[in-house]
Amino acid sequence: MIETVEQYIARMTAFLGDRDPRAVMETTPSRLRALIGSATPAQLTWTSSPTRWTITQIVAHLADAEIVGAWRFRSVLAQHNVPLQSYDQGEWESAFHYERVPPSESIALFDALRKSTLRTLSAVDPSRLEHVGQHTERGPESVRRLMEMYAGHDINHLTQIERLLEESR
C-alpha cells in the first residue's frame, strides 16, 4: 500500500485515537513480550503472503524504529528545529535481514531503548517538550507529535502481530 505522508500521519494518529501516547508507549514492551511469549516458532515465521512481514520481521522493525525514535526524541529535546532524517523501512529490513534476528533480541533492544526514551522525556526541563524537529518528509514535528506517531506505530504493529497469531492457528 502506497500512501501519502498525510495519509500515513492520519493512519498512525487514528490508531492512537484519544489514548494517552505516553501510556501506550509505556505498555508496549510488556504487550509485545506477552504476544511473542505465546507464539510458537512456526507462528513467528508464518505469513500469508510473501509481501507481508512475519512476526519476527515486525519485531525486528520495531527495534530498529525505536533506535531511530530514541535518536529523534533526543535530537529534538536537545535542539529546537533540528532536522530529522527519514529512513526506508523496506531497505532496513532487507539490509539487516530481519528474518534472521531472534525475536528475543529485538524485544530486549526495543524494551531498553523505550525505557531510556521515556526516562529522558521525564527528566528534561519541561520547556524542552515544546521543541519541534523538522522531519524531511513529514515537516515540523513537536515532541508531542513524535509521541503520538510512535504510540500509533506501536498500536499498528501490535495489531498486525495479533492478526498474524490468529491467522496462523
Name the structural class. Answer: mainly alpha
Low-confidence stretches: none
* Helix coverage percent: 55-70%
Q: Give the spatial strand order of the biggest sheet.
A: 1-2-3
CATH class: Mainly Alpha
Q: What brief labels describe this structure?
A:
single chain; 169 residues; mainly alpha; Four Helix Bundle (Hemerythrin (Met), subunit A); three-stranded mixed β-sheet; 6% strand
Short description:
The protein has helices at 5-16, 21-37, 41-44, 55-78, 89-95, 103-123, 143-167, and strands spanning 83-84, 132-135, 139-142. With 169 residues, it is mainly alpha-helical. Helix 1 packs across helix 7 (143-167) and helix 4 (55-78) runs parallel beside helix 6.
Explain what you see.
The chain has helices at 5-16, 21-37, 41-44, 55-78, 89-95, 103-123, 143-167, and strands at residues 83-84, 132-135, 139-142. With 169 residues, it is mostly helical. It has one domain: Up-down Bundle (Four Helix Bundle (Hemerythrin (Met), subunit A)). The protein has a three-stranded mixed sheet with strand order 1-2-3. Helix 2 (21-37) packs antiparallel against helix 6, helix 2 packs parallel to helix 7 and helix 4 packs antiparallel against helix 7 (143-167). The chain is globular and about 50 Å long. The protein starts with a helix and ends with a helix.
